[in-house]
Amino acid sequence: MVTHEAWLTKLFNAYLAGLGNWLLHLFGQTATNAREPWADFIVMQLLVAAVMIVLFLVLRGRLSVNKPGAMQQLFELIHGFVVDQADDQVGHDGRNHVVLFETLFIFLLIANLIGIVPQFMSPTQAVYVPAGCALVAFVYYNWVGLRKHGAFRYALHFAGPILWLSWLMLPIEIISHLARPLSLTIRLFANMYAGEQVTLVFLSLTYLVGPAIFMGLHVFVSLLQAYIFVLLTMMYVAGAVAEEH
After folding, report:
1. How far apart are CA 9 and CA 33, in angstroms?
2. 107 belongs to a structural domain
3. SS3 for 12?
4. Per-residue pLDDT tens digits for 197-228
Protein backbone atom coordinates (compact mmCIF):
# COMPACT_ATOMS: atom_id res chain seq x y z
CA MET A 1 0.00 0.00 0.00
CA VAL A 2 1.38 3.37 -1.04
CA THR A 3 1.22 6.04 1.63
CA HIS A 4 1.55 9.79 1.15
CA GLU A 5 3.54 11.59 3.80
CA ALA A 6 1.77 14.60 5.24
CA TRP A 7 3.49 17.94 4.84
CA LEU A 8 3.82 18.34 8.61
CA THR A 9 5.49 14.94 8.84
CA LYS A 10 7.92 16.01 6.12
CA LEU A 11 8.86 19.04 8.22
CA PHE A 12 9.41 16.83 11.28
CA ASN A 13 11.62 14.47 9.29
CA ALA A 14 13.53 17.35 7.71
CA TYR A 15 14.28 19.25 10.92
CA LEU A 16 13.68 16.85 13.84
CA ALA A 17 14.98 13.54 12.52
CA GLY A 18 17.62 13.42 15.24
CA LEU A 19 15.02 13.83 17.97
CA GLY A 20 12.84 11.17 16.37
CA ASN A 21 15.69 8.65 16.23
CA TRP A 22 16.65 9.43 19.83
CA LEU A 23 13.09 8.83 21.02
CA LEU A 24 12.92 5.55 19.13
CA HIS A 25 16.22 4.39 20.64
CA LEU A 26 14.90 5.39 24.06
CA PHE A 27 12.16 2.76 23.65
CA GLY A 28 14.45 0.19 22.06
CA GLN A 29 13.22 0.81 18.50
CA THR A 30 15.02 1.64 15.27
CA ALA A 31 13.59 3.51 12.31
CA THR A 32 13.54 1.69 8.97
CA ASN A 33 14.90 4.88 7.42
CA ALA A 34 17.00 6.98 9.79
CA ARG A 35 16.23 10.06 7.68
CA GLU A 36 12.48 9.62 8.20
CA PRO A 37 11.86 8.39 11.75
CA TRP A 38 8.58 10.27 12.11
CA ALA A 39 5.43 8.50 10.93
CA ASP A 40 2.23 10.34 10.04
CA PHE A 41 0.22 8.91 12.93
CA ILE A 42 2.84 10.00 15.50
CA VAL A 43 3.00 13.55 14.18
CA MET A 44 -0.80 13.76 13.95
CA GLN A 45 -1.09 12.60 17.58
CA LEU A 46 1.31 15.33 18.65
CA LEU A 47 -0.73 17.83 16.66
CA VAL A 48 -3.96 16.68 18.31
CA ALA A 49 -2.34 16.98 21.75
CA ALA A 50 -1.11 20.48 20.89
CA VAL A 51 -4.58 21.49 19.65
CA MET A 52 -6.13 20.23 22.90
CA ILE A 53 -3.64 22.15 25.04
CA VAL A 54 -4.18 25.37 23.06
CA LEU A 55 -7.96 24.95 23.19
CA PHE A 56 -7.97 24.47 26.95
CA LEU A 57 -5.60 27.40 27.53
CA VAL A 58 -7.76 29.69 25.37
CA LEU A 59 -10.91 28.39 27.05
CA ARG A 60 -9.49 28.96 30.53
CA GLY A 61 -8.74 32.58 29.68
CA ARG A 62 -12.27 33.14 28.38
CA LEU A 63 -14.28 31.49 31.14
CA SER A 64 -17.13 33.71 32.24
CA VAL A 65 -20.16 33.12 34.44
CA ASN A 66 -22.14 36.07 33.10
CA LYS A 67 -21.19 36.05 29.40
CA PRO A 68 -20.06 32.58 28.31
CA GLY A 69 -18.71 32.56 24.78
CA ALA A 70 -19.42 30.04 22.04
CA MET A 71 -16.36 27.94 22.92
CA GLN A 72 -17.31 27.81 26.60
CA GLN A 73 -20.87 26.80 25.72
CA LEU A 74 -19.58 24.05 23.43
CA PHE A 75 -17.33 22.58 26.09
CA GLU A 76 -20.04 22.92 28.74
CA LEU A 77 -22.30 20.97 26.40
CA ILE A 78 -19.65 18.24 26.01
CA HIS A 79 -19.03 18.18 29.77
CA GLY A 80 -22.73 17.95 30.58
CA PHE A 81 -23.21 15.16 28.05
CA VAL A 82 -20.28 13.12 29.38
CA VAL A 83 -21.36 13.65 33.00
CA ASP A 84 -24.92 12.53 32.21
CA GLN A 85 -23.64 9.42 30.45
CA ALA A 86 -21.27 8.65 33.33
CA ASP A 87 -24.12 8.97 35.82
CA ASP A 88 -26.28 6.65 33.73
CA GLN A 89 -23.65 4.01 33.10
CA VAL A 90 -21.45 4.06 36.21
CA GLY A 91 -23.86 5.42 38.83
CA HIS A 92 -22.85 7.44 41.87
CA ASP A 93 -19.16 6.69 41.21
CA GLY A 94 -19.38 8.10 37.67
CA ARG A 95 -18.21 11.62 38.40
CA ASN A 96 -14.96 10.33 39.89
CA HIS A 97 -13.94 9.18 36.41
CA VAL A 98 -15.22 12.05 34.26
CA VAL A 99 -11.70 13.42 33.66
CA LEU A 100 -10.66 10.23 31.87
CA PHE A 101 -13.93 9.96 29.96
CA GLU A 102 -13.83 13.55 28.75
CA THR A 103 -10.14 13.42 27.85
CA LEU A 104 -10.65 10.25 25.80
CA PHE A 105 -13.74 11.67 24.11
CA ILE A 106 -12.15 14.99 23.13
CA PHE A 107 -8.88 13.37 22.03
CA LEU A 108 -10.63 10.77 19.89
CA LEU A 109 -13.07 13.30 18.45
CA ILE A 110 -10.30 15.67 17.35
CA ALA A 111 -8.13 12.77 16.16
CA ASN A 112 -11.01 11.43 14.07
CA LEU A 113 -12.00 14.81 12.63
CA ILE A 114 -8.52 16.09 11.80
CA GLY A 115 -8.45 13.84 8.75
CA ILE A 116 -10.97 16.18 7.09
CA VAL A 117 -8.28 18.86 6.88
CA PRO A 118 -6.48 18.58 3.51
CA GLN A 119 -3.01 17.01 3.73
CA PHE A 120 -3.69 15.68 7.24
CA MET A 121 -4.73 12.21 8.34
CA SER A 122 -6.70 10.87 11.27
CA PRO A 123 -4.18 9.16 13.59
CA THR A 124 -6.92 6.70 14.55
CA GLN A 125 -6.52 5.21 11.05
CA ALA A 126 -3.27 3.67 12.32
CA VAL A 127 -3.96 0.68 14.54
CA TYR A 128 -1.37 1.78 17.11
CA VAL A 129 -3.43 4.79 18.23
CA PRO A 130 -6.71 2.95 18.93
CA ALA A 131 -4.64 0.21 20.59
CA GLY A 132 -2.97 2.75 22.86
CA CYS A 133 -6.31 4.27 23.87
CA ALA A 134 -7.76 0.80 24.43
CA LEU A 135 -4.85 -0.14 26.70
CA VAL A 136 -5.38 3.08 28.69
CA ALA A 137 -9.03 2.14 29.19
CA PHE A 138 -8.11 -1.47 30.09
CA VAL A 139 -5.47 -0.51 32.66
CA TYR A 140 -7.68 2.22 34.11
CA TYR A 141 -10.81 0.19 34.79
CA ASN A 142 -8.82 -2.66 36.32
CA TRP A 143 -6.87 -0.21 38.46
CA VAL A 144 -10.00 1.51 39.82
CA GLY A 145 -11.54 -1.90 40.48
CA LEU A 146 -8.50 -3.03 42.45
CA ARG A 147 -8.32 0.29 44.31
CA LYS A 148 -11.97 0.14 45.36
CA HIS A 149 -12.36 -3.54 46.22
CA GLY A 150 -8.86 -4.78 46.92
CA ALA A 151 -7.21 -7.67 45.08
CA PHE A 152 -9.26 -10.48 46.66
CA ARG A 153 -12.74 -8.94 46.31
CA TYR A 154 -11.97 -7.73 42.79
CA ALA A 155 -10.84 -11.23 41.82
CA LEU A 156 -14.23 -12.52 42.98
CA HIS A 157 -15.79 -10.50 40.13
CA PHE A 158 -14.22 -13.01 37.75
CA ALA A 159 -15.67 -16.02 39.60
CA GLY A 160 -19.29 -15.27 38.74
CA PRO A 161 -22.34 -15.19 41.02
CA ILE A 162 -22.47 -18.97 41.64
CA LEU A 163 -19.50 -20.26 43.61
CA TRP A 164 -19.57 -23.85 42.39
CA LEU A 165 -19.44 -22.62 38.76
CA SER A 166 -16.37 -20.45 39.39
CA TRP A 167 -14.08 -23.05 37.78
CA LEU A 168 -15.97 -22.48 34.52
CA MET A 169 -16.60 -18.75 34.82
CA LEU A 170 -13.02 -17.79 35.73
CA PRO A 171 -11.36 -18.64 32.39
CA ILE A 172 -14.36 -17.25 30.47
CA GLU A 173 -14.17 -13.94 32.35
CA ILE A 174 -10.40 -13.67 31.95
CA ILE A 175 -10.64 -14.27 28.19
CA SER A 176 -13.53 -11.81 27.98
CA HIS A 177 -11.57 -9.08 29.75
CA LEU A 178 -8.44 -9.68 27.67
CA ALA A 179 -10.54 -9.42 24.51
CA ARG A 180 -11.84 -5.98 25.44
CA PRO A 181 -8.76 -3.99 24.31
CA LEU A 182 -8.78 -5.93 21.04
CA SER A 183 -12.47 -5.20 20.52
CA LEU A 184 -12.06 -1.49 21.25
CA THR A 185 -9.03 -1.29 18.94
CA ILE A 186 -10.55 -3.08 15.96
CA ARG A 187 -13.88 -1.24 16.19
CA LEU A 188 -12.32 2.23 16.15
CA PHE A 189 -9.52 1.45 13.69
CA ALA A 190 -11.69 -0.41 11.17
CA ASN A 191 -14.43 2.22 11.10
CA MET A 192 -12.06 5.18 10.74
CA TYR A 193 -9.87 3.47 8.15
CA ALA A 194 -12.86 2.32 6.09
CA GLY A 195 -14.52 5.73 6.29
CA GLU A 196 -11.37 7.47 5.12
CA GLN A 197 -10.92 5.08 2.19
CA VAL A 198 -14.53 5.55 1.07
CA THR A 199 -14.13 9.33 1.23
CA LEU A 200 -10.91 9.19 -0.80
CA VAL A 201 -12.52 7.01 -3.46
CA PHE A 202 -15.40 9.43 -3.95
CA LEU A 203 -13.05 12.42 -3.89
CA SER A 204 -11.21 10.85 -6.82
CA LEU A 205 -14.48 10.44 -8.74
CA THR A 206 -16.04 13.85 -8.22
CA TYR A 207 -15.08 17.16 -6.67
CA LEU A 208 -18.54 18.68 -6.26
CA VAL A 209 -21.48 17.14 -4.39
CA GLY A 210 -19.90 13.77 -3.53
CA PRO A 211 -17.07 15.05 -1.31
CA ALA A 212 -19.42 17.23 0.75
CA ILE A 213 -21.77 14.30 1.40
CA PHE A 214 -19.01 11.93 2.42
CA MET A 215 -17.22 14.52 4.53
CA GLY A 216 -20.51 14.94 6.39
CA LEU A 217 -20.61 11.17 6.80
CA HIS A 218 -17.02 11.27 8.06
CA VAL A 219 -18.00 13.83 10.72
CA PHE A 220 -20.92 11.63 11.81
CA VAL A 221 -18.73 8.50 12.00
CA SER A 222 -16.07 10.44 13.93
CA LEU A 223 -18.59 11.56 16.54
CA LEU A 224 -20.19 8.13 16.76
CA GLN A 225 -16.93 6.23 17.16
CA ALA A 226 -15.61 8.59 19.85
CA TYR A 227 -18.91 8.20 21.71
CA ILE A 228 -18.99 4.39 21.41
CA PHE A 229 -15.38 4.07 22.61
CA VAL A 230 -16.04 6.20 25.69
CA LEU A 231 -19.42 4.55 26.34
CA LEU A 232 -17.81 1.10 26.38
CA THR A 233 -15.07 2.42 28.68
CA MET A 234 -17.79 3.68 31.04
CA MET A 235 -19.45 0.26 31.02
CA TYR A 236 -16.14 -1.44 31.83
CA VAL A 237 -15.52 0.99 34.69
CA ALA A 238 -19.07 0.41 35.94
CA GLY A 239 -18.47 -3.33 36.06
CA ALA A 240 -15.15 -2.88 37.85
CA VAL A 241 -16.49 -0.62 40.61
CA ALA A 242 -19.90 -2.29 41.03
CA GLU A 243 -20.78 -3.59 44.47
CA GLU A 244 -21.78 -7.24 44.64
CA HIS A 245 -25.22 -7.87 46.15
Report:
1. 14
2. yes
3. helix
4. 777 777 666 666 556 667 778 888 999 999 99
Does residue 61 sit within a domain? no
Q: Does a structural domain hold residue 58? A: no
How far apart, in whole angstroms, are the C-alpha atoms of residue 86 and residue 141? Answer: 14
Residue closest to 77 by CA, chosen among 66, 89, 69: 69
Range of the domain at 125: 95-241
Question: Structurally, how many domains does the chain consist of?
Answer: 1
Q: Under 8 Å CB-to-CB from 19, ≥6 apart: which residues?
A: none
Please name which of 42, 48, 57 lies closest in space to residue 6, comparing C-alpha atoms: 42
Q: For residues 60 and 71, what is the distance between their CA atoms, to the nearest angstrom?
A: 10
Contacts of 200 (CB under 8 A, 6+ apart): none
DSSP-derived secondary structure letter, 33: S
CA 14 – CA 160 distance, rounded (Å): 56
